Amino acid sequence: MNGLSAFGQKYWGTLYSLLSWEQLAGFWPKIAPAKPWYLYAVGQAVPAKPASSEEVGRFVAEIDALLHREHEEDYCGIVYADDLEQPTFVKIYDPNNLGVACGSSGKHIFPGWIMSLDPPEELKPEVVPNNRKRWWQTLFG
Fold first, then answer.
1. What is the SS3 string spanning 54-118?
2. From CA 87, how far away is CA 98, in angstroms rounded?
3. Tens of pLDDT along 8-46?
4. Is the distance from CB of 112 to CB of 133 less than 8 angstroms?
5. Where exactly are the structural domains of the chain?
């Protein structure tokens, strides 16, 4: 992964899945809101600065509610982090845009949202559903 930025190394690097809802519930408190988290809705404008502690707390609460409401499985498996104890990078996949889980379609499935302590870089999915754009705008106007 030579030549990649810190963000790129984490995006394309090894991440660990939060397989169960219980793991996810235990993971969220490890996101320290006071740290300089960039909250990036993939396909939207790249944030120029980290979110405030309040915004991080609100995002975690709202994304957790969205995942529980819309990922109709008895397991999570769509949230990944670089470190499950002291995360610095988190990919969250949109439960309504998972594509082919094994990747056999040949298409790269972008996550819906990224939390990163490194400044994010623009990712360009083919389509961002309007309902997700509205959800993000409602959350961060």
1. HHHHHHHHHHHHHHHHHCCCCCCCCEEECCCCCCCEEEECCCCCCCCCCCCCCCCCCCCEEEECC
2. 23
3. 999 999 999 999 999 999 999 999 989 999 999 999 999
4. no
5. 6-135
